[in-house]
## 1
Amino acid sequence: MKRLEGQVAIVTGSGQGIGAAIAMTLANEGASLVVAELLEANGSAVQKNIEQAGGTAISHPTDISEESSVNEMLRVSMDRFGKVDILVNNAGIYPVTPVEDMAEEEWDRVIGTNLFGTFLCSRAIVPHLLERKQGRIISITSGRGLQGAKNGAHYASSKGGIIGFTKSLALELAPAGITVNCICPGVSDTAQPRGHSTEEELYAKGATIPLGRIGQPEDIAKAAAFLASARAKFVTGQTVLVNGGGVMW
């Protein structure tokens, strides 16, 4: 049984890594997908993969830090599918710079993408969800938002902010039956940590995790599918840690 049959989901930053895994997993559960991805070629490739697997998808180049781009993405989604049931705020960036060397422009770019982008996408879809009195908003945060990030204060601040935003929006939307949650991955086998670690360093981190390995994109995607489904209808305002026990909250 496909648990998301007839649903429509937007996944931002879904051209690779965790976002692509979430998009594929939701599609496999029966949802129609909007692949909202800044890099058009990556988004088109994920759309093609979904369609080849028998699913339904469109891709749309989207800069989540720009309100006009977010609004256009939602307009295209509504024109194609007539509704949206699920929003997954996944898009994010993680440059590495110590605070003493961090330019204001870099701080603004990270906060503007990770936190402000989550706000823009959520704000755009809320009126539609309220009108229908149903829906799911799921945002991807990070263990860095709980523990801090050496040379990544902007990233940790943005991810910690997503947790606070999630709780606040959950309180606002609960009377309408709309749930708002976030997923907090630990070290995962994706392009982002690979950009900051060697292969040996990345997998050595697995030895420090109680379950003995780093995460895979599919681990996070399965949690997103649960939160998007009716099985999670009494779960809201939560930060779900999917990290093999690396951080226990």
## 2
Amino acid sequence: MPPSLSFLSNRSATANAVSRRDALRIAVALLPHFVALGIMAATEYGLERRLAFLLAWTLLNCFWLALLRRPAVSAGISLAIVAVLVLLSELKFRVLLMTVNFLDLMVIDQDTIAFLFTIFPGLNWIVFAALGAGIPVFLVLWRFDSFRTPRMLSAAGAVASIAGLIGVSHAVPMEPYEAFYGNNHVSGFARSGIDAITDLITNGFMESDAVAADRLKSADLTCQPAHKLPHILLVHDESSFDIRRAPGVKVPPGYGAHFRSFDDKQRNFIVEGAGGPSWYTEYNVLAGLSARSFGRFAYFVTRIAAGRVERGLPHALRRCGYQTFSLYPAFGAFMSAGSFQKTVGFQNFYDATALGTSDVEPDQFYYDAAARMIERQRSKGPMFVYVYLAANHFPWDIR
């Protein structure tokens, strides 16, 4: 073959090889985007939610592109974040019947992580395995990805995506009950992030007046009872409701006895949380304060208050010589219940593990535990025992 033809042939073969290599790089860079579209089709429902997903996906990619400039690596990291978010959201929904919210990221604490790893003991191995597999893939993509994108263009894309998310969130506001649907994981997280950051900038964690004329009086540090103090048993009967308040509902004979005291009188006590999170009621009763002051952050009230609210019913009773006990039917790390209740004055906190519960226990289990506790401790002085019942709360498919 003449030298000129040989040169052209070799050059053509080299060009074809380069073209195939570039095509492969382009395909690898595009693959995470197609996977993300598949996740959107499987988990997002509604035009505004899918639009929010696409904007969140664009924001993630542009953020990483502005840092790394590599489209394949950026798309891979973005896909990993979306996949983890969807899995964690589905995991949370299985346990709490609510999907992941942006506030979960803002109010993350040791108790929440401990709760997650307690109810799923094998999760730590899954995390280690995912990291072990993800790091080599990341290094391969880093070497393989030869394309580069301008940082200014990526930054502009990120800003445009944020503007789009703000527009969608304001045009179609996210309703609180959407978290109970069990889907729309990415769009819900992104839209709740816009709402939460807006509220945080506007009001802070609490909705309060700039100036208040009244002040809480300092707690009285002395207590001198004039007579022997009785034991106090406070029962938190979750999801129990006197249906007679609804007109036209027939009830069986003797139904009302459940809501009357030992002296046959019925006393009403207004608290927050009917039809909603029972920890609102827990916060009301134990701290003597309103969860509504926290606005959009009220859902996390016990987590925010843990270690910060140091007054309330248990503390007041301790100053009068009471021993304070709490019997809690779930893991103490749930919503930081253990940390919160110890903060407001419980000397002894027994959660599901300490009580030896097995799945859903009937009310009798906790009443018996309280009776045994009183029998053991009553000689040491007056007792305040907070008994939290939860059998009514759980789905009624367990006898």
## 3
Amino acid sequence: MRIGLYSITYLGLWYRGEPLTLEQLIRRAHEYGFEGLEIDGKRPHGNPLDFTAARCHELRNLAAREGVPIYSVAANNDFSSPIPEQREAQIVYVRELIRLASGTGAKLVRVFAAWPGITRQNGVGRYDISRSVWQTAHEKFSDEETWHWCRQSLAECARYADDQGVTLALQNHPPVMNTYADMLRMIREVGSPALKACLDAPLVAQYEKTPMADAVRDTGSLQVLSHFGGEYDLAADGSVRSFVRKAGGLEPEAYYAEFVRALMATGYDGYIGYELCHTLPVVNGETVGIDFADRNARLAAQYMKGVIADARRHAKSETAAHL
């Protein structure tokens, strides 16, 4: 199991300040101890309109030299629109991201079934406006209709992915994929070897009451990608502490240890990538800057390395106990 960095962390969307270029991001990932990079599929990082074959080759070589290969490209797609022209445009977008992934050496494209999107206000991202627009657009349509549109679009994109030797990783992210069981049902119904799972622990913890180990076990060998998030600080003894930001403030995170142990039990050997993609604190009237992202990315890498090391020790002790 390896730790990666998802480029949305440095997109200049959640903190106050400019984004990193992909060249800067690759070097930052190497400096902080990440083992790979997932490129977010929008400007300024990974919009396929900006990627010629030469640009793909250039980034692939730089990432390889720095020891942080590009392992995934993340689509911000919405296959749920009631408007056929919009769904068709989204299919073209994902097809082009598959091309980008193939050109940079990435084997995965993370996809949503539905994604309302993000808007900016005063330079900082927010979710609420786009979510209200999405809800309004779907008021006159049934869940079954929306599901059908998503399944149809995912099936078409899976064919494009299969042709390029790329795998789509469907994330357990609302809307439409409201539970991990929805994700697994969609994968079964599409029925393509090029569509697999991106099960993320924070989404299980936030939207479900299912034990984390059960979600991982049920996903099993379909799991090809995962993410982790949150905020981090150093305890007095030098250990890294993990927190989840909620409306009432920070709460200690309490599920990654179980999640990683369960992943290890299934034999998962892919990436778990760090993402900082939520509303950040406002200090003295201003949203925190890129130094906040730097600190959290560096500590997140340390934290997850520790969680993985603990899971390996636990697995060895479990094996020894059964001998």
## 4
Amino acid sequence: MTEIKALCVFCGSKMGASPQYQAVAKQLGSLLAERGIRLIYGGGNIGLMGVVADAVMDAGGEVTGVIPEFLMKFEVGKSNVNELIVVESMHERKSRMFELSDGVVVLPGGLGTLDETFEVITWKQLRQHDKPIVVLSVDDYWAPFENLVESLVDQDFAHPAIADLYTVVHSAKAVFPALESAPEPNEEVLTSHL
């Protein structure tokens, strides 16, 4: 597996209902800085996005934010990061974040986080990349997602090996072993649909 030098983190532009979401976002940010891994994230200064970026910077780490121009006023683009890339669209934002990273971690979040997560998993299913994807299910936040994926398999809309396209963990410390041990995509995940 490729060495992780930069990690894309998808997460909410809100804090969420549980204080654990914020605590884990802070812990993940600190661990990224400690390991010398650059954070690539959505460029916002609010919600869990702001928390994880602040934690990386507070611990002396490097942060690159990527944000569309039209969201600058809504998400208050974080100007004190090492690099803030302003792009034209959401599509360009996702592509740029992905291009700049060696892997993906997903924290709790809303529709945007779901969109980003499904897209990078789908790209992996279609063999467009082999980067590791780790879903950090704080307080079982992502259990409904796991159930939905199981339902896709049960209803014969997906091959059982789609479960290997990502790894679910329950703590910030578990993210790094999961990135290192992520399995290669199974070709049958794609070819079973053709």
